[in-house]
Write a structure and sequence with these properties.
Layout (H helix, E strand, L loop, with lengths): L11 H18 L1 H12 L9 H12 L8 H6 L1 H19 L8 H18 L1 H12 L10 H12 L8 H19 L2 H5 L8 H31 L17 H12 L8 H6 L1 H23 L20 H17 L5
């Protein structure tokens, strides 16, 4: 999860829009790596040639270049409701963990972020299952014609609870995720040999990438089992392409270790780690670009292409306060009458 320092010069809707556009663009540019990750986790990848490049090339040759973006539309559509739920849940958890003096510890802050992410994931979990189903299907012989058809088909054929298949792994995966976040963020000052409030933009970007790599590696086995449970269905060809047969989450863990070894729980990790730097790089860059446009629109900067501040504008004012101040100032100028 990525967080930006709250800038009071942006409205809540502008922050949500900037984050949503940044997330959608970063997801779209790294979609082929996400596809390779999911296919490796489910077990669809077959043959001697393995790895992200081989998986992508295989899909390209079999289904065409557009197939590399299977499931990306639903992944982008779920960003805005996910961000809204996560933000609301995060505020509630922060209030819960804040002491009487208004202070919150680093561990509590990390826990608030992890719990908020877990809540948002659970609320919109069906969209994640649909994304997995769209990725594993063959576009030339599709079982689902689109997002809405996938929702209705899964509901009619398998029931409502099928849309939440594997959701328990999300809850269990939050534990190593939180532990990894704490491990990284409590040692950043030792790593950089400097206090956190003096980290540069590049250092903060490196911190986010490092935290993502550690947390995703630790929680990856739970994500692998979740993907297999999402994809498995007796109504799909080859049971959704899952490479092991199981009766539940625990049995899925057991079957993976028995047939593929312990490292089988980390199938697809390479592709997942490869997308971290471009994903967060595009996300940060897009967010900052959108932020510059909003700051210019709100009247804080002289150009949308730079952070040069508008002369005479109090940067501590919120957008609504700044608008009211400008109206008041304009009204004063109009009310002044020329004197002889």
């Amino acid at each position: 999860m990525v967080t930006w320092r709250r800038d009071g010069r942006l409205t809540g809707s502008q922050r949500l829009l900037c984050a949503g556009l940044a997330g959608a663009l970063s997801l779209s540019l790294t979609a082929p790596l996400e596809l390779a990750t999911v296919l490796a986790q489910v077990g669809v990848v077959r043959g001697r040639a393995r790895g992200p490049g081989a998986a992508g090339l295989r899909v390209w040759r079999a289904e065409g270049p557009r197939a590399l973006w299977k499931g990306n539309a639903v992944a982008c559509l779920r960003l805005f409701p996910c961000s809204a739920v996560q933000l609301a849940a995060y505020r509630k958890f922060v209030m819960l963990f804040t002491d009487d003096l208004g202070h919150i510890s680093q561990w509590s802050s990390i826990m608030a972020g992890s719990l908020a992410g877990m809540v948002s994931t659970i609320v919109i979990y069906p969209t994640d299952l649909i994304k997995t189903r769209l990725i594993v299907q063959n576009m030339l012989e599709p079982s689902y014609r689109g997002i809405l058809h996938a929702f209705s088909t899964v509901y009619q054929q398998e029931g409502f609870l099928a849309l939440y298949r594997g959701v328990s792994l999300t809850v269990l995966g939050a534990l190593p995720f939180s532990a990894g976040s704490l491990l990284v963020y409590t040692n950043l000052e030792k790593i950089w040999n400097a206090p956190q409030d003096r980290f540069s933009l590049l250092q903060n970007f490196a911190n986010v990438c490092l935290a993502a790599a550690v947390t995703q590696t630790l929680s990856f086995p739970f994500d692998t089992v979740k993907r297999k449970m999402q994809a498995q269905s007796s109504y799909l060809p080859h049971c959704g392409g899952v490479d092991v047969h199981f009766s539940g989450a625990v049995d899925c863990f057991r079957q993976i270790v028995r047939t593929q070894g312990v490292l089988g729980l980390w199938n697809g990790l390479t592709a997942n780690l490869m997308k971290i730097v471009p994903y967060f790089g595009v996300m940060f860059g897009t967010f900052e670009f959108c932020k510059r446009i909003c700051l210019y629109q709100n009247g804080y900067t002289v150009s949308p292409l730079s952070y040069k501040l508008t002369p005479g504008v109090d940067q501590s004012l919120k957008p609504q306060e700044l608008r009211e101040f400008k109206k008041f100032k304009t009204g004063q100028l109009k009310s002044k009458k020329p004197t002889i």
